[in-house]
Amino acid sequence: MRTIIAMIRFLIRAIWSLVWGLFWTLALSFALVVGVLFFSGKTGSGIDGVSRAAQTVVTQVDAYFHRTGPMLSQGSPSAQEGLATDGHTSTGARWDQATAKVYLDPAMDETFTLAYEEALESWNQTGAFTFQLVTSEEEADILLTEMDDSTVSAAGEAESQTNVLTHRFKRVIVRLNRYYLLNKQYNYSHQRIVNTAEHELGHAIGLDHNEEESVMQSAGSFYSIQARDIEAVRQLYKESE
Fold it and tell me: Region annotation Disordered: residue ranges (predicted)?
């Protein structure tokens, strides 16, 4: 009997030591990765930067185990890390002039309609590019709509048709992914959704990802349109002025 009790105590101690050791290993690993992200400057500075770095790590761990979360790209980036983040690949394309006609899909969720409208207004207020709303999809250069796809590791996407000879856009379809943006698990605020819309519209203008404090930051939808984004658009369309 004493032997059995001794064995049970030994197993309890061994299990406790294993669990405690695992806990500290995970905690230290988490702190290390958060530190690396923070000091890399990709998540901003100060307490907000640390918080964003922690959110990024949590999102990526969740995405790894569930195979559904958005990847760190903004997409962007995700569980709320990042998703302004997407799988955008640079094409070097833009419109011929710093203006484009856009059509809002009337069938999409009202949350996205409002987010798109705010994002369009924000870009128009910069004076660097003008989006003109039209009432017919056929006359639009850009279609703003939604998707609901867990197999796409992105909160949004901008799919473009480009003239490979002139490097000019022919048509762009922007989609916000409701699977992430309207999913309570990912806890996206309205402002984060608007930032995601601004990010994808940035791609529709011709902007690529960067790792600065920018609406085009690949790590996520943490920033709205910044002065550097406005200047990037002006430089992109400088020759068309």
Answer: 72-91
